[in-house]
Amino acid sequence: MHHTQRLVFVIVLLLSLAACAQPQPQPPLPEVQLTEDEVGQTVELAVGQVLAITLPSNPSTGYAWQFIAGDDAIIAQQGEAEYVQGANMPGAGGMETLRFTAQGAGTTMLTIGYKRPFEPDEMPVRSFTVEVVIR
């Protein structure tokens, strides 16, 4: 190898090593999914991770799951609740999913309640609480 060829080879080698050292974008963390069976449990999340809580719901009664309490500097609701119809019959219930995104490190109790939005002072007829720990 001539001196120039060797120099070009070394430069190409260094450039290819530098390309390998670039941090690869991390794939999004998997969504953590909870159902009514996990009520009262402790859930650990990483910052940016999404917590999805899916609970039985029947909007024809006027009731819906709503955020009640939790530190929104630690975990905040993401968008509106999603409702999926169960049996295709009038008045039949389905499942409602609320999503929350981990905002920052800390611990908070997250409570959602099943209540009528037009009765803000009424207590929820059902509630779902989990302890959320963000690392």
TrEMBL record:
SUPFAM superfamilies referenced in this protein's UniProt entry, alphabetically: ICP-like
Keywords assigned: Protease inhibitor, Signal, Thiol protease inhibitor
Classification via Pfam families: Inhibitor_I42
InterPro entries attached to this UniProt entry: Chagasin-like_sf, Cys_protease_inhibitor_I42, Prot_inh_I42_chagasin
Signal peptide from the UniProt entry: 1-21
Domain of life: Bacteria
GO MF assignments: cysteine-type endopeptidase inhibitor activity
Record domain Proteinase inhibitor I42 chagasin: where: 45-132
Keyword Signal annotated: yes
Keyword Signal: yes
PANTHER family for this protein: AMOEBIASIN-1, INHIBITOR OF CYSTEINE PEPTIDASE
Protein's name according to its UniProt entry: Proteinase inhibitor I42 chagasin domain-containing protein
Source organism of this protein record: Candidatus Chloroploca asiatica
